[in-house]
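Limitations
The structure tokens in this dataset are predictions for the assembled complex, not deposited experimental models. Users should treat interface geometry with appropriate caution, especially where small molecules or nucleic acid strands are included. An illustrative entry is reproduced here so readers can see what is and is not provided.
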Amino acid sequence: MAVIAGPHDVTQGHVITQTHADVTRDVVATLGPPSRGYLLLLAGAVSLFLIGILTFLVLIKDGLGHAGYQPPIFWSVYITTFVFWVGIGHAGTLISAILFLFRSPWRTAVYRSTEAMTVFAVMTAGLFPIIHIGRQWIFYWLLPYPNQRYLWPNFKSPLIWDVFAISTYLTVSTTFLVFGLIPDVAAVRDKVSGWRKMIYSWSSVGWQGTDNQWRHYSRAYLYLAALATPLVLSVHSVVSWDFAVSIVPGWHGTIFAPYFVAGAIYSGIGMVLTLIIPLRRALRVEHMINAYHFDNLAKLTLLTGSILFYAYAMEYFVAWYSGNIFEQTTFYRRAFGPMWWAGWTMIICNAFVSQLLWFRKVRTNLTALFVISIFINIGMWFERYVIIVSSLSNDYLPWAWGQLNPTWADWGILAGSFGWFGMWFLLFAKTFPIVAIQEIKEMIPMPRKRGGHG
Amino acid sequence: MINLLKRGKGSAGARRVPGLVASFLHVDAAVDAIRALRAKGYRNMVVYSPAPNHEIEEALDHGVSPVRLFTLIGGLTGCTAGFAMTIWMSYDWPLVVGGKPIASIPPYVVIGFELTILMGALSTVAAVALFSVLMGKRGAAYDPRFSDDTIGVFVPTTPEQIAPIEQLLRSAGAEEVRRESA
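Predicted assembly:
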């Protein structure tokens, strides 16, 4: 990998040298027969997923006792992992919707992969509250439906807000992804043959790219982006209120909503980098996703990482300045208590490692970026672990303090979630165009007979 | 059905209308042809392009898509539904929770907001399906190259119009002009 150079020098801005036909050809080529490396990765993901399934079956049979729950900690690894995966999704919507409204030219090449990541991450996250509730077969009690007890959900509870926020987020991001795919699937349909053509024809729902279709489509795309933008900011705010609305020391902070949204985007871009650095090579789209895009992704990481740095500092400052002994004790124990290692993992991986991205040499070095992205993934999982577990482990009464010892059931489900996510992402990357054909074409000026290009 | 799918024609409902289909590799040539056709009074042509293009949009001068009205109606419906549902359900079985009023508006804003987005997005997509797939003009004139790098212009014609329009399309710079019979 090492340093990437070539016609796309980051200092020179971005020049697309491809024609429309090149774009179709190169992207359709990514859908060819899978390589050995791809199959190995897929097998790995499916095996992890099976570990998760086996663990889940044991949990259904015996109950949640296998997980490390003990007083006073009844929200632990599953809720941590839930927040982790919801957060991962946010970078995808930021890139696909918010940067679309800002007309950022660099988003087009990476937006499809990040939007797919969003959908699969939220699909993964949505499983965790269901696993966590224990009696999974009655999860529908969360929904408002007429029942024989004449009871409705408590709409004043953040947990019900979560049900609405997460299901809306999953529906809208899936819609956005599928909607964006329609013209691209039509382009693939016209390049392949046999049974594949039949499947792509069916899934392109009659798309022909007529002026009438484009007219409605482009407008609708704009509105979907405009609706997804406040949605993404709301979803992680609602998730943060699951904690902030309670009065547990360490959770009860007004800073939580922006703090969680910044963290979510930071963690999501970390996952984007982890996914697309190997993917662009495996699918041979290095010329389409290049130093220019990584430089911009890294700048976004730096920005959100710095906001997190500020939020961490502010949490400690507010704890000290509040003069509240419970708040102060919680934060003292985060840094120097029994969970000090988790607290420092979070601070070092998120606040400090992201500061390396001030250097352009780091931002355009893919090996360095990949390593940093792994630190981000680990750091952001630990951030949620620290916020959730360390706050619960020492609340108001010292005799009720306790520790969490995660068990095989916690790790099994965590591993399974990575397998489930990886499996969907890999299958998607080989089935649908992972680089948005139509949006890249829109950026390339069409040839003209009078002067100009062509 | 299978035959239609194999030919990439899209839907089985495509009407066949006699006419001329011209393909263009240069965007300004296609725009010239559209402007010339409109100047002669032809309005019901179909323009195929691999990506949306502002020059073509301007030449066709369609006006803003009515999809936005559906987004608005969907969003307002969702917002109303969210508040109506939470308030009605609270009073249907009144329980005081946390010393708050039975129907407390601030927490219900979250539900109202999420349903606004949800219904707004779904009705937007439904409107696109309605306008561009069910009611849209599509035809047998489609060519697989139109999703790759070629712009296509289809003009429905009567037999006596064929010669002058073919001449017009060729002089604008069409790479190829083909006759489509019914």
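Some entries come with short summary sentences. For this one: The longest strand of chain B covers residues 19-24.
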